[in-house]
Amino acid sequence: xxxxxxxxxxxxxxxxxxxxxxxxxxxxxxxxxxxxxxxxxxxxxxxxxxxxxxxxxxxxxxxxxxxxxxxxxxxxxxxxxxxxxxxxxxxxxxxxxxxxxxxxxxxxxxxxxxxxxxxxxxxxxxxxxxxxxxxxxxxxxxxxxxxxxxxxxxxxxxxxxxxxxxxxxxxxxxxxxxxxxxxxxxxxxxxxxxxxxxxxxxxxxxxxxxxxxxxxxxxxxxxxxxxxxxxxxxxxxxxxxxxxxxxxxxxxxxxxxxxxxxxxxx
Amino acid sequence: xxxxxxxxxxxxxxxxxxxxxxxxxxxxxxxxxxxxxxxxxxxxxxxxxxxxxxxxxxxxxxxxxxxxxxxxxxxxxxxxxxxxxxxxxxxxxxxxxxxxxxxxxxxxxxxxxxxxxxxxxxxxxxxxxxxxxxxxxxxxxxxxxxxxxxxxxxxxxxxxxxxxxxxxxxxxxxxxxxxxxxxxxxxxxxxxxxxxxxxxxxxxxxxxxxxxxxxxxxxxxxxxxxxxxxxxxxxxxxxxxxxxxxxxxxxxxxxxxx
Lengths: 266, 258
Prior knowledge:
Largest interface: A-B, 25 and 21 residues
Structural class of chain B: mainly alpha
CATH topology of the largest domain in chain A: Rossmann fold
CATH superfamily of the largest domain in chain A: P-loop containing nucleotide triphosphate hydrolases
Helix content of chain B: over 70%
Subcellular location (chain B): Membrane
Oligomer: heterodimer
Number of helices of chain A: 11
Number of helices of chain B: 8
GO cellular component, one term (chain B): plasma membrane
Radius of gyration of chain A: 19 Å
Number of domains of chain A: 3
Pfam families (chain B): CbiQ
Distance between the termini of chain B: 61 Å
Keywords (chain B): Membrane, Transmembrane, Transmembrane helix
Shape of chain B: flat
Number of strands of chain A: 10
Strand content of chain A: 15-25%
Main location (chain B): membrane
Largest sheet of chain A: 6 strands, mixed
Number of domains of chain B: 2
Mean pLDDT of chain B: 87
Low-confidence stretches of chain A: none
Radius of gyration of chain B: 25 Å
Order of helices and strands of chain A: EEEHEEHEHHHEHEHEEHHHH
Number of strands of chain B: 2
Low-confidence stretches of chain B: none
Shape of chain A: globular
Strand order of the largest sheet of chain B: 1-2
């Protein structure tokens, strides 16, 4: 089982202006969404987990070892992070080479790296584009390539930064399936996200960050019942939840399926 | 986003002076010593510039400029003192090194020029918002395209350095080693530079389209977002500076005719 333990973590870019203050979270194998307003500290938290920035105090342990002594490149074997904008990473001439870049970097040999890349591409449904130039494809396809390029590294922990931005329904469904598959494989999946419907459908646990602190940390369903606290964090309920609230149904439904079952029981 | 300008608002006298006055000051500081041919005037202008810099609270930011110019001046003193072609009279001997009077005098003039140029420009640059300066250029008839090219530099460079750091994070996250010996760093160069170039090309195109949809190429006369605030103080300073330049020219012509 994969575990990230965050203890008394604080961070600031400029002195006296804490972006994160005294964060304590333990991530376990539940898929977890980190939500919060812009500037709440979500991206900063993820950058700290990846070792891209160093905390001013506190510690992060991955499966029992502190990350403070590890370099970003060596942490890459344990945590994969899919960046928001695929154009910030794509530089190879072909999709396959791009997806192979990560595994080769972490010391996987060429044959295995190629196999891992082919598998990752088929998982995101991009096998037929293996030999295309990434920049001949559309943005949502490049996003899938960026996801594949992290999946191919086969890390036990994967973080998605805004996976659903600028994605149409079909691509969102694809990403949803990928997340479920990773969960099924026993990987720890985290995401930073603004899309509440996606959170409701995909994530077991939700952490609400507000002004650099953890405001709520609970099962997704329970989090969305805290309407007042969510309002404080300037967050909205998922659409289905709003509907079931307006209709004053007995239970707060988060997904369409839940809603339909509830509606017939009503 | 980090800013790359040296300007910082201090609510000082020079912050509220029209950029053109300060440009005229630079013109005066550089041209009057040239017209008069007297090096004391350079000293006077250096003193005025230093006074302006200190009284407008930007002296601390100018110190790096001093250290930078000190290196140039020191080099000039050593090279000219030893090797100036008209060297005749030895003034100082340090072991095998002979410093000559003519070379050192020449270096002294170089030093005055360097300081005069740097400090008079510092008066402008440290107290003027770049966009205000560009605005005033466009107002007097420079093309808005020229103005845009200049002002975009102030946005594009910080933006590119931000993209650069995101890209570096993204590649490091994929296990790319970016620190270490020369070879590792050369290997890290391509994964970094190609997304930077691609994304800045994409950005440039987007920017061009965004400008176009807001009528950048329209041929009607453009108006300005900020009103020009040229006060009486500005006019008086302008007149004084212009008079100084004209008077020194007249004086020079008269002395030449004699």
